[in-house]
Amino acid sequence: MNRREVVQEISARLDGICRSCTIRQQLQDSLQPGGQKDSTIDRYCIKQCAVGKELQQLGKKLGAKDPLMPDEQLWYRSPKRRAAFYQTCGGSR
């Protein structure tokens, strides 16, 4: 799995599973505004949620020191490739 596929997988899981998570929504509703809401939710996602643990494993793949594939090293030099990359990842630059 190359970096692009890993980023796409992470994005798909965040958009598909995490946004519709009922436990996350319950935590948001039960915690006081302005308190430790975000850190409590993040702690749950990191330590207890199976999807959060999978996301951590995918994130470790991004941080690996493996050399990039030759085509990945040059993707940013082409404006068309750069635009296509950000479009598939849902971002804009």
UniProtKB/TrEMBL annotation:
<protein>
    <recommendedName>
        <fullName>Zinc-finger domain-containing protein</fullName>
    </recommendedName>
</protein>
<dbReference type="Pfam" id="PF10782">
    <property type="entry name" value="zf-C2HCIx2C"/>
</dbReference>
<dbReference type="InterPro" id="IPR019718">
    <property type="entry name" value="DUF2602"/>
</dbReference>
<keyword id="KW-0614">Plasmid</keyword>
